[in-house]
Specification:
The structure is a single chain. The protein is α+β, with helices and mostly antiparallel strands. It folds into four domains: 55-117, Alpha-Beta Plaits; 122-130 and 288-432, Gyrase A, domain 2, CATH 3.30.1360; 134-145 and 193-273, no CATH class; 451-636, Multidrug efflux transporter AcrB transmembrane fold. Helices cover 50% and strands 14% of the residues. The longest helix is centred in the last third of the chain and has 33 residues, at 547-579. The chain starts with 10 loop residues before the first helix and ends in a 13-residue tail after the last helix. The relative contact order is 0.13.
Length: 649
C-alpha cells in the first residue's frame, strides 16, 4: 500500500499551529483592552444594535442661498472620509434635501460628530499683538457709586435728590427696579425698542448677508458707541475706565454671531468682547486669507496678520507622540509651494526688527491692512524678546502659538493639549482637506437600539435553528464525521469572535446586522465544503481504497475545489467592499473575514482531524463512521481475509 505524504502523518503539528493562532488572537483581545473581562471581550457594535447618536448639519451660505449639489456632495464625502477614516467604522453619512447632512454613529459619539463637521481650515498667521483677556465686569463700574448709595439710603433723603442730577445712572437703576410694573404704558409707548431688542434674531436670520448683519449690530449698539470703539488704537481695560465702560460695555451682550461680523480692531481693542464670545463664533467666521483677524488661545486674545501659509499647502498630516514631551502632536508635511511660504513666514518672524511697524490706523473695517508688508509684531507684548510668534489657527481658534526662534524649511508640528483621539481627528481633517461649505449644528438625538435588538434576536434565533438543523442532519447522515463538522463550525465561530474584538479595537470595525448576515452566509459556504470533502472520501473508498489511504487522496482532490470556492467568495467580498459603502461594505468585510478564517480552520483542523479519525477503529465501522453502505460494499468485495480492505494498486 502506498504511504501517504509525511506531512499528512503528523496532524498534531497543524492543530498546534491553530492553537497558537487562537492564543495570539485572544491574548491581543484580553491584554489590548481595559476594564473587566466582559468589557475586554466586547466587540464594537453598530448603531442598529446598541443605539448611538445622530447629528444633523445645516449648510449655511453667506447669501442665504442653498449650496450647489456638487458642493454638498463634496462636503458629504469629506465628512464621510473623516468619520470612516479606515473605511470599516460604518458611520452613516447621507445628504438630505438641498442643505442638510445627517451623520449617525454607534455609541456616545456626539462630541466626535460635532468635530467632524468643522471646516478644518488651517491657517498660519503671525501674531501682531497679544493681550490677556480680562473681560468686562459690569458690576465693577457702579461699585464706587454704589458705596455712596447705601450711605445715602439710611436717612439723608436730600442726597438722592442732588445726586439724581449729576448721577442719572443711579436714578434710572432705581426707577427701573421699582417702576417696572407701573410703566405699562411705557412699553406700549415703546413698541420700537422691542424690535430693537429683537436685533439678535434679525442678525441670526439665514437670509441676511454679513453686511446686513453688521448694519443690524451697528444699529443695536448705536452710533456713539460704535465710533468710540473705532477710535480705540489699543485695548482698554473698561473695568478701570467707567466713562468708556458705559458706552462700550454693551459689546459684551452681543451674541457670538453678532461678534463675528465686527471689525477686527473692535474685536481686539474692546475688552468687553471676551474669548468666550470669539471662540463661539460660527465656523468660517475668519475665513479670509488676506484679512487681519482676532482669535484666542486660552486666556490670550491675539491680533493676527494675514495668512500666508494655508491648509492647502499641507501634503500630509499624521498623529504621533512627541518623544521629548510624551504628548500627542500632529506632524505636517508641506508641498513645494508650502515649503517656500513656510520658510518665508518663519524668516519674517525671526527678522522682525527689519519689518515695518504695525499702524492700527491702517486697519480698515473690512479687516484688510492698508500698510506695507511685512508687518512688525509688537515687542514684548507676550513676554518675548524680538522674534514673533506664529499662530496655528484652525477655523476660529488658535491651536498653538509658538515663538519662532529660527528659520524653518521642513516638517512642522502642531502641538497642544491633545488626546490621542483629538490628534488623530485633527490629522484626518487636515489630510482630507477643508469643507467647501460652513455648517451649523442642527438637531442632535440619541437613537434607540430597541428595534435593532429585536431584529438581532430574531436573526440569531433563526441562525441558531438553522445551524442546529445542519448539525442534526450532519450527525444523522455522517455520524462520527458529524463531530468534525461540529468542531469546525465552533472553532470558526470562536476565531471570528476573537478577530471581531481585536479588529474593532485596532481598526474600528463595527459589527452591524449587515455584518452578522455576512458571517452567516460565510458559515453556509463553510458547511458546503464539508459535503465536498466527505463525498470525495466516499468516492475514493468506492474505488477500492482503504479509509486510511482514502483520506489524504480525498483531501488532495477536494482541496482544490474548496480553495476555488472560497477564493470566489473572497473576490466577491473584495469587489463588493471596494465599490460599496455603509452597511453593504460591512457585509462584504464580514463575509471576506469569515471566509478567510474558515480556510484557516479547514487546513489546520478539519483535515488533521480526519487524518486522526482515519487511524481509529471506530472509523472502520460502517455504523459509527458515517460512511455506511460504502464501507459495507467494500467489505463484500473478495479479498485474502474476510473483512479486510482492498489494497491500492
Amino acid at each position: 500500500m502506498a504511504q501517504p505524504p509525511p506531512t499528512q502523518q503528523r496532524p498534531g503539528r497543524q492543530i498546534a499551529v491553530l492553537g497558537f493562532i487562537f492564543l495570539v488572537v485572544y491574548a491581543a483581545a484580553l491584554f489590548g483592552g481595559s476594564g473587566g473581562l466582559s468589557e475586554r471581550l466586547q466587540p464594537r457594535l453598530g448603531l442598529d444594535l446598541v443605539g448611538g447618536t445622530r447629528v444633523t448639519y445645516i449648510a449655511s451660505a453667506p447669501d442665504g442661498q442653498a449650496p450647489s449639489a456638487e458642493a454638498l456632495e463634496q462636503a458629504r464625502q469629506i465628512i464621510a472620509n473623516r468619520v470612516n477614516a479606515r473605511g470599516v467604522e460604518e458611520a452613516e453619512v447621507v445628504a438630505e434635501g438641498d442643505r442638510n447632512i445627517v451623520i449617525s454613529l454607534a455609541g456616545e459619539g456626539a462630541d466626535e460628530l460635532r468635530s467632524v463637521g468643522e471646516p478644518a481650515e488651517l491657517r498660519f498667521r503671525k501674531v501682531l499683538k497679544g493681550v490677556t483677556d480680562i473681560g468686562f465686569d459690569p458690576n465693577a463700574t457702579p461699585a464706587p457709586t454704589a458705596t455712596p448709595d447705601p450711605t445715602a439710603t439710611p436717612d439723608p433723603g436730600a442726597t438722592p435728590d442732588p445726586g439724581a442730577t449729576p448721577e442719572p445712572e443711579d436714578d434710572p437703576q432705581v426707577d427701573d427696579a421699582t417702576p417696572t410694573p407701573a410703566p405699562e404704558p411705557s412699553p406700549d409707548a415703546e413698541p420700537e425698542p422691542t424690535p430693537t431688542t429683537a436685533a439678535p434674531d434679525t442678525t441670526n436670520a439665514d437670509n441676511l448677508t454679513p453686511e446686513e448683519r453688521l448694519a443690524a449690530v451697528r444699529e443695536k449698539i448705536g452710533d456713539e458707541a460704535w465710533q468710540a470703539a473705532l477710535e480705540l488704537t489699543d485695548p482698554v481695560d473698561l473695568n478701570a475706565d467707567p466713562d468708556r465702560a458705559e458706552l462700550l460695555g454693551q459689546f459684551g451682550d452681543l451674541t457670538a454671531l453678532e461678534v463675528a461680523v465686527l471689525p477686527a480692531a473692535i474685536q481686539f481693542n474692546v475688552s468687553a468682547i471676551t474669548c468666550e464670545q470669539l471662540n463661539a463664533r460660527p465656523a468660517g467666521s475668519i475665513r479670509g486669507e488676506g484679512e487681519v483677524v482676532v482669535a484666542c488661545e486660552g486666556a490670550g486674545k491675539y491680533l493676527l496678520d494675514a495668512a500666508t501659509v494655508l491648509g492647502t499647502h499641507v501634503s500630509n498630516a499624521n498623529a504621533a507622540i512627541d518623544q521629548t514631551t510624551g504628548r500627542w502632536v500632529v506632524n505636517l508635511d508641506f508641498n513645494g509651494e508650502g515649503r517656500e511660504a513656510w520658510q518665508q513666514l518663519t524668516q519674517e518672524s525671526v527678522s522682525n526688527a527689519t519689518a515695518t511697524a504695525f499702524d492700527p490706523a491702517q486697519l480698515g473695517e473690512d479687516g484688510l491692512y492698508g500698510g506695507s508688508r511685512p508687518v512688525q509684531c509688537a515687542e514684548n507684548t507676550l513676554g518675548d524678546q524680538g522674534n514673533c510668534r506664529v499662530a496655528v489657527v484652525l477655523d476660529n481658534e488658535i491651536v498653538s502659538a509658538p515663538q519662532i526662534i529660527q528659520v524653518l524649511t521642513g516638517q512642522s508640528t502642531i502641538s497642544g493639549e491633545f488626546t490621542q483621539a483629538e490628534a488623530q481627528l485633527l490629522a484626518s481633517q487636515l489630510r482630507y482637506g477643508a469643507l467647501p461649505l460652513t455648517f451649523v449644528t442642527g438637531e442632535e438625538q440619541t437613537v434607540s437600539a430597541t428595534l435593532g435588538t429585536e431584529y438581532l434576536r430574531a436573526g440569531l434565533l433563526a441562525a441558531g435553528i438553522g445551524m442546529l438543523l445542519v448539525m442534526v442532519y450532519g450527525f444523522f447522515y455522517y455520524r462520527l464525521l458529524g463531530t468534525v463538522i461540529f468542531g469546525s463550525l465552533v472553532l470558526s465561530a470562536v476565531l471570528v469572535f476573537g478577530a471581531l474584538v481585536v479588529l474593532g479595537r485596532q481598526i474600528g470595525f463595527t459589527l452591524t446586522l449587515a455584518g452578522i448576515a455576512g458571517f452567516i452566509v460565510a458559515l453556509g459556504v463553510a458547511a458546503d465544503s464539508f459535503v465536498i470533502y466527505f463525498e470525495r472520501l466516499k468516492d475514493e473508498i468506492r474505488d477500492g481504497r482503504t479509509p486510511r489511504s482514502a483520506v489524504p487522496r480525498a483531501w488532495a482532490r477536494a482541496r482544490r475545489t474548496i480553495i476555488s470556492a472560497n477564493v470566489v467568495s473572497l473576490l466577491a467580498a473584495v469587489v463588493l467592499y471596494v465599490v460599496s459603502t455603509g452597511p453593504v461594505q460591512g457585509f462584504a468585510f464580514a463575509l471576506g473575514l469569515a471566509t478567510l478564517l474558515d480556510l484557516v480552520v479547514v487546513f489546520l483542523f478539519r483535515h488533521p482531524m480526519m487524518t486522526l479519525l482515519a487511524r481509529t477503529p471506530a472509523f472502520l465501522s460502517p455504523r459509527v463512521s458515517g460512511l455506511g453502505r460504502v464501507l459495507e460494499r467494500s467489505d463484500e468485495r473478495p479479498g485474502p481475509v474476510a473483512g479486510s480492505r482492498v489494497k491500492e494498486a
